[in-house]
Amino acid sequence: MSDRVLAVIPARGGSKRVPRKNIREVGEKPLIAYAIDQAKAADAVDHSIVSTEDDEIKTVAQEYGGNIPFDRPDHLATDKATSDEVAVHAINWFKEKDERFDTVCLVPVPAPFRNPEDITNSIQRLHETEADSVVSVTECDPPAVWAVETDGEYLTPYFGEEYLWRKTQSQETPTLHYPNGAVFAANVPLFLDAETFYTERTVGYEMPRSRSLDIDEPYDLELARALMEHRS
User: Fold this and answer.
1) What is the DSSP letter of 197?
2) Less packed terminus of the chain by CB within 10 Å, N or C?
3) Do residues 213 and 12 make contact, with C-beta atoms less than 8 angstroms apart?
4) Average pLDDT of the chain, as a whole number
């Protein structure tokens, strides 16, 4: 039997930094439409769903072809609820219907420039390694080791003077990556055991900065709109 992959698109209604973020328009359609299209077009995904508690998001998602088999429980629609918990709930909901999946993939809405191949390639990377999970990442720019902190008056290098004060060229710094929030995938039994996509056996799937914008602040939404208009 071939591996069955479930893609979960979390879409809570209570975003505070960017109100109603999941259905704000970017490039003539709501953000959630991009995630729905990308998950459905990903060759590695067998079944994709939207998990939401919000009636307006549900209506918009269905208008753009989203599958919403259940209402997300209220306790998973708070500020403290995590996407990991949302994925666990979706897996268990299908289990109760005697439908099982081998791999779960999280496709967050605020990453409109991710493409279907990023989803498929992430899942393939998981299957080709001995990892429990995969997280999409992007190279830090500027280098993370240039970070500074303040003692209330003066700036000091967070990672030590070796990098900030003496190494002035970016090519002299170590190559570091950060999770870009675009794709998460995991082996279902191991994920249900750990209840997180971050384990001791998590590998990265690298994406370029051009596809790694994660809309978290109003400025990010403005940038996404400008980029989408430019690229179209």
Assistant:
1) S
2) N
3) no
4) 95
pLDDT tens readout for residues 41-68? 999 999 999 999 999 999 999 999 999 9
Cα angle 190, 195, 197 (rounded to 5 degrees) comes to 75
Q: How many residues are there in the chain?
A: 232
Tokens of 153: 């008056």
What integer pLDDT is reported at residue 1 of this predicted model? Answer: 42
C-alpha closest to that of 146 among 125, 115, 121, 171:
171
Element counts in the chain: helices (H) and strands (E)? 7, 10
Contact indicator for 203, 130 with CB cutoff of 8 Å: no
The Cα 174–Cα 151 span in angstroms is 26
* Closest CA relative to residue 20, chosen from 224, 226, 215: 215
Stated pTM of the model? 0.95
pLDDT at residue 169 in the model: 73
Domains and CATH numbers, the chain: 5-138+177-225 (3.90.550.10), 141-175 (no CATH)
